Amino acid sequence: MRVTIRDVAQRAGVSVSTASRALSGARPVGTELTTRVTAAARALGYRQNRLASALRTQRTGTVGMVVPQISNPFFPALVEAIERSLSGSGRQLLLCDAQRDPAVEAVRLQALADRQVDGLIVAPVSAVASADALAAVAAEVPVVQVDRYVTDADLDWVGVDDAAGLRLIAGHLADVGARTVVLVSAGSESSTGRSRLAGFGPAAARHRLTTAEPLLGEYGIDWGVRAADLLRARGPLPDAIVGGNDEIALGVVRGLRAAGVRVPDDVLVTGFDDAGFAALADPALTTVRQPHALIADECVRLLDLARAGGEQAPRRIALAPTLVVRASTTRS
Amino acid sequence: MRVTIRDVAQRAGVSVSTASRALSGARPVGTELTTRVTAAARALGYRQNRLASALRTQRTGTVGMVVPQISNPFFPALVEAIERSLSGSGRQLLLCDAQRDPAVEAVRLQALADRQVDGLIVAPVSAVASADALAAVAAEVPVVQVDRYVTDADLDWVGVDDAAGLRLIAGHLADVGARTVVLVSAGSESSTGRSRLAGFGPAAARHRLTTAEPLLGEYGIDWGVRAADLLRARGPLPDAIVGGNDEIALGVVRGLRAAGVRVPDDVLVTGFDDAGFAALADPALTTVRQPHALIADECVRLLDLARAGGEQAPRRIALAPTLVVRASTTRS
DNA sequence: CCCGGCTGGGCAAACGTTTGCCGATCAGTA
DNA sequence: TACTGATCGGCAAACGTTTGCCCAGCCGGG
């Protein structure tokens, strides 16, 4: 049988309420009693039953998170950052995987809400198919979207400033002498695909880069490989290929290589996200690093704000990324 | 105010206990009442408060997991598998990151125990420094170790059969004509380092491979790079280099490349784990794939067993890996 | 007609906390 | 001395469930 606050109170010779107050500091308790209670607690090895506490206070000290797929290397980094950001205030992360399926995602969201999490951080699987479940759960508990967002829902969002990232890339490519660039990215099912596409044109124009028609598929290495072929079939290659994320970029590199095109000697390639393997790939990938820690902090801050402040206009926070130059755009 | 079982009972015109029994099926309830209760629950959109339920039943339907570092690409795959395995029985995973620090790990373990998780799945940070905290928490809740284990604690463990993995690698290397091999792995702080070292010699001998003195450092790409240099300094390279995990192997490839040694043309390299980037690397890495799903299922099974069966001798379950042959050992 | 057993509904007590309220004690002031 | 207010301990009621126990009703057997 675990030791309860009742045992502590008994050993300290005080009432349960006094013990509770002495331990939690909810109200001042005489110094002598306080020491007696804390001594008793230590002696007995008392540790609070968070469940009972949560039932009473309506606060679990737990934040739920749902990611589309944890094995997608972008998310572990984010999870880690959020876990760290939360642990600063003694909270825990309850993590779920949506298995890339909006139906699974809906179940997970409900399960987390049933567990009375204090807040929910969600990277929605789909910009449209995830909307209903997200809206439903947002009615019960503060929700912050991260990385991706659903359309038609007035929910907070925190992510990277895609336009800024593309400006960084365009600037860098211009610096190393590229004149013509083409974007290979994901289509508009995901919000990031949409905004990276939107940001590309202006960024290129700003640095006087000539662009060709973008190739839009899906985030994934396979699409990158295929896009490389399509690109070669289209005629002479551009000076640089801008990948919508690191996986696409890596696929492009692989596809070009298979055809005897060398990176970076014949064509430059850039990624987006700075997922773990971007540095490990060969050639190491020039990319744009998402500010994980900042994103995480911002998510947590918005959750706290939502709890404190009640209803407000949804906030959309786009944080500035940084450029990471590696071998894939460095001519030796 | 959320709708409680009380509201459901009221609307159905029955007592709270009947409502509870009708919904949970804990005891048979007349068919008419059952339908009335379920109809009321649906109409009101009732969803059980898991906290209250857990407080009463002493079962949270939540399993805690602590990993050394979620951004280490091996763990997301494991987390995903375990999450999936648990969701089959309607349970949730409460994930924590130990930030590679036994002290943080201890805090996380306690925090999970305080939240009354039904079980704990832990990949200990350190074979020795993690032992005390793990033993302490194991006194309160069933614990299963995964991947790594601590010495001097009688706790269940589930992981991969390192010896079998090395036999697969040795056999494959012998098949492709290698005669001399050397192991580059991690030292004995981690249990896997120890057992992979132990398995290497016999596996090589079985396939009549000549071995040289192993190089032992730590899991990580940097050590691989350094080891490649050490190896070259030592004299003529072996036919094949066996990495203790994929990161080391990739580091070795990089180190060799930098010195103008080609993989696989000049020397073969293998990894271990089949982390996500192993397939993405260039050359794609021949490696041994951990059976994530099996490991996950086994962890969950052991936890359930521990809850049901009470105290028993600790079980150590080593599951057979499979060989994945890729470019790093394929001479064209 | 009586009795025993079974079915199924409801009361109320838990689970381990927190907290509103009451009242006791004590110091300070008139 | 009496009164006021502040300080602080304790009682007991919550939080939302589940479940042990009791009891009513009913059926079948003797």
Automatic annotation (TrEMBL), chains A, B:
Keywords noted in UniProt: DNA-binding, Transcription, Transcription regulation
Alphabetized Pfam families for the sequence: LacI, Peripla_BP_3
InterPro entries per the UniProt record, alphabetical: HTH_LacI (IPR000843), LacI/GalR-like_sensor (IPR046335), Lambda_DNA-bd_dom_sf (IPR010982), Peripla_BP_I (IPR028082)
A Gene Ontology molecular function term of the record: DNA-binding transcription factor activity
Superkingdom of source: Bacteria
Domain HTH lacI-type, chain residue ranges per copy: 3-57
PANTHER family documented for this protein: LACI-RELATED TRANSCRIPTIONAL REPRESSOR, TRANSCRIPTIONAL REGULATORY PROTEIN
Protein name: LacI family transcriptional regulator
